[in-house]
Amino acid sequence: MTAQIHAAPIASVGAWLKSVGSPLTETDLVDALQEARRPQETAALSHADQAFWDEHAGIPAGGRVGSKGSLVNVVDVVSSAAASLTAADVAANLEVAAATVRHYRTDGSLYSHKRGRNVFFPTWQFTDGLAAALPSLAAVLAVMPADLHPRAVEGFFKTPTPDLSRNGQPTSPREWLMTGGSAAAVVRLAEYVGAGY
Known about the structure:
Elements (H helix, E strand, L loop, with lengths): L12 H7 L6 H12 L9 H10 L10 H16 L1 E2 L1 H8 L3 H10 L5 E3 L2 E5 L3 E2 L4 E2 L3 H5 L8 H9 L2 E6 L2 E3 L1 H6 L4 H12 L3
Antiparallel strand pairs: 1-3, 2-3, 4-5, 6-7
Helix pairs in contact: 2-4, 5-6
């Protein structure tokens, strides 16, 4: 008979955030929850549009989608942060000064996004155990819209596409660049994203 090992329960949200390696604090999580509860500005619908909405939308117009939608947003914030590094982490991993990381961020050599007061550097853009940036990353980022949602940017780099095939198998832009594929091919794909295709 195999003995079952049970992990000790986590006593607080702060302890859980720390256990998953998230740079968020409990205060950041409260801020995300507050943002999720903030009323959204909506335009008034005409009577006919209101009737159509009520019949076909499945959710009440003018009302808020339930708390599940808000929680999904908060979970997205936490999971995104857990799969990201702080500027200090990046500096330590790349063995560069903090000022160099700030420069990489402003010149587009590394991708980052801000959530509240925090700047996140997603881990998908690093290779070699997080010790190096993805080859040709800056060239690809240069043609992508600066305001593209972080999940869309991640999806672009991590989703296999037939446009980048190896041995008949679709490859993601990230994998393509990591294995020495042509940066120009990925830049062309990124230009389509920038053009809204």
